[in-house]
Inverse folding.
């Protein structure tokens, strides 16, 4: 932004936000699931955590962000960035998850093509900062260190003996760089007793996972401390291909990349790492208890989101995504309802939500990973009724979008338009289907649905047949390059 404060030596510096959007946030189940994880949800405001992160970065940096994400979320992320007004982002696709170090290395290679000395501000898409007014000063200090060739991390001043975060042991101040100290050691997530000692000593900070460094510095550090990772990432980067408005890393090459975090690959091995102590109101929003902690509360300490009624209850987090949810006479609870699941837990046991997800996975329950509403590049669909030989769905197609040209071997479909207008391809025919009209698609016919209008197209789909699974789709042509 043009109003960014420039410190001496920083004039003309290119700062590129790098946003990592991976992980599934299972401790925030039933909202956060692999198909639609926590960074895509509006957990603290009307905007998603991803949108908040990108907008926060825009207030500090001049350059469009680089977002590293997986295949499944690419269209969701692109749409959310568009909705937030983020212009010209670069979206780098990981064919498979390989942790943070390979993702950061690929982003550094991408930025270095244009400017090897550009400074990267690395951050997760799913963290919160509740004191953004303190961010600019911390960034200026970090950038000053990065310009000197340091890998700079932000250490958050702890407000409690938190066992869910890693810690940074702060070393001596670095001469000539105000507000920057050497990192003495990184510490793993401690137990409660160790966390108490860390906080009381005053020598430890929470590890935020945010880093600031020059692109060439990160590449050099990776080559020195994790050469096998860097070599494999270079191969995947060299094999990358453009796909619509995405950059897709080489699939087979990236599968060979070791799985390792930036902490293990560089931060804990390098003597070139420094820390900026900061008080940004930072949280990784890693659990419902953490979300309660940073959310606005009523006079009784409750957080209520959605269609919620709370009676004679205290210090609870109650959220409803669809149905009226009422609680009475309870304290210190988390209650979350979605259209297919309800969670009730004590706030002190919020970390145990991950155990529930693990059990759901073992039972192969779809609720472990997917929501009833499934998003696609053209819009979304959700199941309304499902039985052995029929299923009823609501489908919403955004203006100007269209589904793939496809056919089914095991089912027939009946589409009833309830809002907007559909242009339907049925074998050799093109049929305009208006509101309150319907069309039948027999088993095996080649068909496609398109929204030629200016408002969302909404229709009810009735499927009938012996098998109704989503894998009974043979795509013959697809605008979005899906298999």
């Amino acid at each position: 932004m043009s109003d960014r404060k420039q410190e001496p030596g920083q004039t003309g510096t290119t700062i590129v936000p790098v946003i990592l959007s991976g992980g599934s946030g299972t401790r925030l189940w039933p909202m956060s699931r692999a198909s639609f994880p926590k960074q895509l949800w509006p957990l603290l405001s009307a905007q998603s955590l991803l949108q908040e992160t990108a907008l926060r970065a825009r207030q500090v940096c001049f350059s469009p962000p680089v977002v590293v994400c997986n295949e499944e979320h690419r269209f969701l992320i692109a749409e959310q960035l568009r909705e937030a007004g983020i212009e010209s982002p670069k979206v780098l696709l990981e064919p498979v998850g390989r942790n943070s170090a390979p993702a950061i290395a690929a982003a550094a290679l991408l930025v270095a093509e244009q400017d090897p000395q550009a400074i990267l501000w690395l951050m997760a898409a799913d963290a919160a900062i509740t004191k953004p007014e303190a961010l600019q000063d911390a960034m200026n200090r970090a950038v000053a260190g990065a310009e000197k060739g340091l890998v700079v991390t932000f250490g958050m001043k702890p407000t409690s003996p938190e066992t869910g975060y890693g810690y940074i042991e702060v070393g001596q101040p670095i001469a000539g760089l105000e507000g920057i100290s050497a990192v003495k050691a990184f510490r793993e997530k401690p137990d409660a007793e160790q966390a108490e000692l860390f906080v009381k000593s005053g020598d430890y900070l929470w590890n935020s996972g945010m880093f600031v460094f020059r692109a060439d510095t990160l590449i050099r550090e990776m080559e020195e401390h994790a050469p096998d990772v860097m070599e494999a990432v270079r191969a995947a980067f060299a094999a990358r291909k453009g796909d619509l408005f995405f950059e897709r890393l080489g699939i087979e090459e990236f599968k060979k990349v070791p799985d390792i975090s930036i902490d293990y690959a560089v931060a804990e091995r390098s003597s070139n790492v420094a820390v900026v102590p900061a008080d940004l109101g930072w949280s990784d929003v890693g659990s419902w208890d953490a979300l309660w902690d940073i959310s606005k509360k009523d006079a009784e300490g409750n957080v209520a989101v959605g269609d919620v009624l709370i009676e004679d209850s205290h210090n609870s987090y109650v959220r409803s995504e669809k149905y009226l949810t009422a609680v009475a006479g309870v304290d210190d609870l988390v209650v979350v309802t979605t259209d297919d699941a309800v969670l009730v837990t004590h706030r002190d046991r919020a970390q145990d939500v991950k155990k529930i997800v693990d059990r759901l996975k073992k039972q192969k329950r779809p609720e472990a990973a997917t929501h009833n509403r499934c998003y696609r590049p053209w819009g979304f669909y959700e199941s309304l009724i499902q039985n052995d030989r029929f299923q009823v769905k609501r489908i919403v197609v955004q203006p100007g979008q269209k589904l793939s040209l496809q056919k089914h071997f095991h089912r027939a479909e009946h589409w009833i338009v309830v809002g907007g207008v559909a242009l339907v391809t049925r074998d050799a025919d093109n049929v305009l289907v208006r509101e309150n009209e319907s069309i039948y698609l027999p088993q095996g016919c080649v068909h496609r649905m398109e929204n030629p209008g200016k408002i969302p197209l909404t229709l009810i789909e009735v499927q009938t047949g012996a098998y109704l699974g989503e894998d009974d789709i043979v795509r013959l042509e697809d605008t979005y390059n899906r298999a």
User: Anything to note?
Assistant: Residues 119 and 214 are 4 Å apart (CA to CA).
